[in-house]
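#structure-requests
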Amino acid sequence: MIGTGYVGLVSGVCLSDFGHEVICVDTNPDKIRQLKQGKVPIYEPGLDELLERNIAGGRLSFTTGLAGAVAGADAVFIAVGTPARRGDGHADLSHVMAAAEEIADALTGPAVIVTKSTVPVGTNRKVRQVMQQRRPDADFDVASNPEFLREGAAIDDFLRPDRIVIGVETDRARRVMGEVYRPLFLRDFPIVYTDLESAEMIKYAANAFLATKITFINEIAMLCERTGADIKSVAKGMGLDGRIGNKFLHAGPGYGGSCFPKDTAALARIGQEHSTPMHITETVIEVNERNKRRMVDKLLDLADGSFDGKTVSILGVTFKPNTDDMREAPSLTIVPALVGRGAKVRVVDPHGRREGKALLPGVTWLDDPYEAAEGADILVLLTEWNEFRALDLKRLAGVMAQARMADLRNIYSAEDARAAGFSAYTCVGRAGFA
């Protein structure tokens, strides 16, 4: 497994739990040292126990030496980062191609080279071309195996997937990949075998559709605020339709994270390159960014038009609960806007501080929501961690200088807030009061 980022580490650990011998490779010696000691550098529920168990079982090891890890391997997974390039939004494939060259140099026998990273359509053929040019005598096949892991639920997603998508062109690649995922096949989880291009496209199409669903319900929420409709009732009524489903219909400040922002940008770029503009995806990107900024306007209204000198306490800054990932989080738009307009910002997040301290300068980090609320003018619920789902609202209102709440995840209701003593309450797509 080349790369021990989120995808590579979770995939490597879970594959070792299937009984395979897995060697995870990374160029960062500090990270490898940490992993060898059984310490997980990211927060993902259940990953630390699984890692320790498989290290102890002798199935999982870590190294900075790619050549030794690849020699004799049946399958080599490329799971390096493909961030969006500055300027054009296209996926940066430099790490993928560098890994392909190193793998070509290190091969000692037949192997299947599997791209686990999210890559534009046509990348696996480029991987094969790069490797063949580098090592004409090498015996290998290529396969595309995109991941569909939700941060915060990645272990369950890997061990109990909705589907496994595998793009192959040869019987040998199909056979090897079948052995890799044999434990899941035996438990009747669906495996979709297809060509390389279709496997690559499935990943982008799936993420773009989910991002569209989130953005659509956020636009409907905005209309609900103007018309008096309740977005929770609307979403429930929609979601009970089997053709729509109830997932990803929760109104809020917009999507973020490691996948949706870069994958929608990459799909839009792919469409441009093939003279087939992805108009819906391009609009989703635009509307999602606009929705994040709309949250700032909601807070500004709650602050009577000015943040200057006011204390704002933010509960949750990671892009979603059960992860420490801050990438493209709505907080990265909202919090700097507050600080820049003169607010004194306090932040509480169960696991967001490690990354957030560098990304959110000028804020005060606290561990307790009640301490953060003391003397504050506005309380903002921004990430729906379980720790924030059953707060003592009366206690919070009682310690605030001005008991005003912005519930941007619709955890509570206007009735809850009013009964607790809040003087103003705003949310997303539902009635508040001031």
